[in-house]
């Protein structure tokens, strides 16, 4: 028996739209890192991405909003890794494994991606609007994580169950705090004090080895 995908595949138009958004996001990140948000205009971002200014504003309200898709990519990847874990697996272990793999640096592209995130987080220190985008992306990631955690908890556990929500919040906070801490340093992308190292340490402290227990009496 085949397993149907949980969401329908994207149409060609939707894929092109997402690709354009990501191209704009990369352009914005490069310019923010090099010149800061104050030294970057929406016109400059559109020019770097090779799109018209009206196309930029079709997708984003502000220049800071433009990096949202780029910041969300990491969360999308690690949720997919977590969703691939076996139902009923020990949740703290599954979370740590998914986070470690998501923040691993198998190639130069992954290393460049983390360094780009570092540049954005440094720029956000002086830009409340950019910080707001970062916090929004993390909140949305946490909300998307809840059903994944609930599925791993098994036995009809609700995504709104208290322990599910706490686990999702702890995992999201672990990654956010790790990246913010790492961005303030010159630590390497791998090894001690790297994002993967810091995130697993944060998760261990936040979760204390606990997680949602399978329920036998139906959803909360």
UniProtKB/TrEMBL annotation:
Q: Which InterPro entries match?
A: Homeodomain-like_sf (IPR009057), HTH-type_TetR-like_transc_reg (IPR050109), HTH_TetR (IPR001647)
* Domain HTH tetR-type intervals: 18-78
Q: Which Pfam families match?
A: TetR_N
What Gene3D superfamilies is this protein classified in? Tetracycline Repressor, domain 2 (1.10.357.10)
Per the UniProt record, the source organism is Streptomyces atriruber
Residue ranges: DNA binding: 41-60
Tell me what this protein is called.
TetR family transcriptional regulator
Give the highest taxon in the source lineage: Bacteria
Q: Which UniProt keywords apply?
A: DNA-binding, Transcription, Transcription regulation
């Amino acid at each position: 028996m085949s397993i149907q995908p949980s969401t329908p595949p994207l149409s060609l138009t939707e894929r092109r739209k997402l690709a354009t958004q990501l191209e704009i996001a990369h352009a914005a990140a490069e310019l923010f890192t090099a010149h800061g948000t104050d030294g970057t205009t929406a016109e400059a971002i559109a020019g770097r991405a090779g799109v018209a200014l009206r196309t930029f504003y079709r997708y984003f309200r502000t220049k800071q909003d433009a990096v949202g898709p780029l910041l969300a990519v990491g969360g999308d990847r690690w949720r997919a890794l977590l969703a691939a874990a076996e139902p009923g697996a020990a949740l703290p272990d599954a979370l740590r494994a998914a986070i470690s793999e998501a923040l691993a640096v198998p190639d130069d592209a992954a290393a460049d991606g983390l360094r780009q995130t570092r540049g954005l987080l440094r720029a956000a220190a002086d830009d409340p609007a950019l910080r707001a985008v970062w916090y929004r992306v993390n909140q949305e990631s946490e909300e998307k994580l809840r059903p994944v955690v609930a599925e791993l908890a098994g036995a009809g556990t609700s995504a709104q169950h208290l322990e599910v929500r706490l686990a999702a919040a702890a995992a999201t906070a672990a990654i956010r705090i790790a990246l913010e801490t790492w961005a303030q340093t010159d630590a390497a992308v791998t090894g001690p004090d790297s994002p993967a190292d810091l995130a697993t340490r944060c998760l261990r402290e936040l979760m204390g080895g606990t997680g949602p227990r399978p329920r036998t009496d139906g959803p909360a």
